[in-house]
Amino acid sequence: MISYLRGTLAAFEEDKIIIDVGGVGYGVFMSGQAMGRLPAVGNEVKIHTYLNVKEDAMQLYGFLSRDDLTVFKLLIGVNGIGPKGGLGILAALSPDDLRFAVLSGDVKAICAAPGIGKKTAEKLILELKDKLNLEDTLDRIASEAGSVAGTESHSQIQSEAVQALVALGYGSTEALRAVRQVETEESMETEDVLKLALKYMTL
Predict the structure, then answer these.
(1) Are 174 and 201 in contact (CB under 8 A)?
(2) Residue in 122, 111, 181, 186 with CA at minimum distance from that of residue 153
């Protein structure tokens, strides 16, 4: 099992990159979105990988973070979603957006991914709902935002703001994105976050 590759980015191809690791070139399939975030050829990169073994081929799929890889593994565990389908979903939705779409039953958001129809999206939601945790996601967002003290109440306020936006008729995934753009402070209440998030919704 190849967990990750660290080496020199040697080339970009249509749907994959070539990484030179000790003189050996590894072809790694990646989404266009992820490839767009890579540095120029000649720079060092670290790519988290998943090795897909088929009867006639062994293919490496690459990701910029372990979180991307973890979600990808969950996706391909759903019947009917292969590695290319998993990459397509992660190109359309970030891991956190996908988590919230699944937890809130947002079929429309998941169908935005190429090749994913309504039935597949519904199956994905059904199979992954118990494997994903919204509170963990909000806690991590709060931590990444630099909120150490009061993280529990911080994530609760974010969650309440998202729920309020959904109650107002906004899409659940759209609501989460707006709340995540708000630079929250410890003194803020749910109403404060909601007002700022609404400004982002109208931009």
Answers:
(1) yes
(2) 186
Query: What integer is the mean pLDDT of 41-61?
Result: 94
Distance CA 27, CA 59 (A): 8
Question: In this predicted model, what pLDDT tens digit does every residue of 170-203 receive, in sequence order?
Answer: 877 778 778 878 876 777 888 888 888 888 776 5
Identify the DSSP state of 130: G
Tokens encoding 87:
């990459």
Residue 146 near residue 181 (C-beta atoms within 8 A): no
- Phi/psi at 20 (nearest 5 deg)? -90, 115
**Structural contact between residues 44 and 7, judged by C-beta atoms closer than 8 angstroms:** yes
CA–CA separation, 5 and 1 (whole Å): 11
Q: Would you state the pLDDT for residue 147?
A: 45
Distance CA 189, CA 4 (A): 42
Q: Considering the entire predicted model, what is its pTM?
A: 0.71
Higher pLDDT, 129 or 110: 110
Pairing of strands 44-53, 16-21: unpaired
